[in-house]
């Protein structure tokens, strides 16, 4: 068994790139770029550089822009600028931009970590054949193992070993974010003003400046506990625990003290727009193809007709099962398939399935289905059925003040559900609404020990954060909080100019099959299921939403803040 992690992948053109100096004449394009950079207009500078036709000049100008962005503390914006180059130029361009920026720690260290990953995984880069390369980052940051989406949308579980020893040193290169003294301090309750935050984001966009870390990481919030209206200010305020953050390769921000991922502005904008536009829920599903299931059943029937399988042939037989089943389709609904939200829920779903079939370790508290089967009461192996597991939100309650101007989210977690589905001769799945004891026990263990799993594997903590932000978005929609408070979402609205980062869309996945010899027979576990975030069901459930007079005393009013400040601490 092996642990999963993220991996940075690029396309790599099969040709040599010669490094050469380039001497500038009086070039109007460079003059334009220089003027934009001097004015802090990085977005306009990048556009001007990208419009240059001469490849060498274009590359050098984009490197200049990226270096300026790095020096300004925005590695993500610099990465986007370098991505405008072709696959076979990016690695060298990164290095030269880093040298121009004069890396000496601080904000640029995140770039140094990303650059180190790139230079140490060149043997894993891949050409997609289109000329449109991409960076696909997945998982908890240990390059070499993880979930990957290639440029054509194929999700794959990969295992590769770094023999250089260089990647192992990345753990020592995590850094604390470059924060002012106040923002770096842990707080039991930090408030974020959506009105003030939107105003500052809009100002940065108007000036062509990158969104700073503090905004992208929601001021270090690791959870949302409170939602409050400030009708006097026309504002909606979110509150929860917060802390300074650090980056673990390849760029995952986590709290310095808790180790939990921070909330992401991109994620909030994605789910806020989804619910504002009428989405009832969102989720993903990894679905087998009918033809593959039918071919699998026919292969098993033919094998059984020939009698017992020779022990020496079991592994080959299992490989044939996997080949017969073929690829499965990844379906995402309710949110853009190219959003970070989609990537996180797909990865969490996939990892859950790997845990279930004993391909990924989740700790002693969450044994695999196979482990449970060995200790269960069954005297015969289960029939050929599809074992379905899927993840959904879990909350103890959503409390609200009598006037519904303040809300408290209690008991945030994630629930794993299970079902045994029948398979028809045509390979179709038929829901039964039933789950046999061993299947149900796996789901119960997954649910009951989700907190430990989320601490062990950050993608599950990330998904919990997405559910929390989605519940906030559902509350804003269902309780008409924007209308009642007078808050204008502005650039964060569905028609707004803020653009969350786009990622490669996962479309299909190779089936993963595991086996266990049980009573002299081989058992094959079918993998299917998904993730579903039905947050409107939570806010509409009378058993979940309860009045609390205690919330009347919640004081979320903003104090006198410095110009440009959009967050404050109510409790240390």
Automatic annotation (TrEMBL):
It comes from the Bacteria. The keyword Signal applies. Keywords: Signal. Residues 1-25 form the signal peptide. This is DUF1598 domain-containing protein. It comes from Schlesneria paludicola.
